[in-house]
């Protein structure tokens, strides 16, 4: 297996490449248009076929140019938000690559259609845990849905599950469920109402609101 982290040190964005080198198939999580030359070089070096482009979330003002660039990778783009040319997976869907697979976890809240992707003992959760630390919006699009996604979907996973962020500036890129459950400043030790009050104090979101869509199991 191959696992690579691509980190933009200036902006803090993180992308992940997973590959079954025996079967020569790969997936990429949260790539950005600026990553394409490096990604293509990594794929060519190992003679890898890209099976899926996985996007945990999208910000409206960046959606069109980024999507056009990522489509050039030649693999299906998987995301929660409906758009021509994308694959919207069902909750729990298994996306195969080689002899491996990634499981889809619906985790709305940071944006209304957020997905997380589970591979082995790792969850790629994008901006799910950022709350007030996302550089592209000051607060979650749907705070109530975010509470449910984090406390009911992510924090119920085994303590040792590794959580990989889509962005980091001054924090670690990876943590564990146990760490986040115990010490996250917006979730640990707070009731749902206390959390919602703290998020409300952050100000208005920078994204437009839409009804939250939950996937049918």
Automatic annotation (TrEMBL):
Domain Metallo-beta-lactamase, chain residue ranges per copy: 12-167
GO molecular function, one term: sulfur dioxygenase activity
GO biological-process terms attached to the record: glutathione metabolic process; hydrogen sulfide metabolic process
Stated name of the protein: Beta-lactamase domain-containing protein
Annotated organism of origin: Hydrogenophaga taeniospiralis CCUG 15921
Top-level lineage group: Bacteria
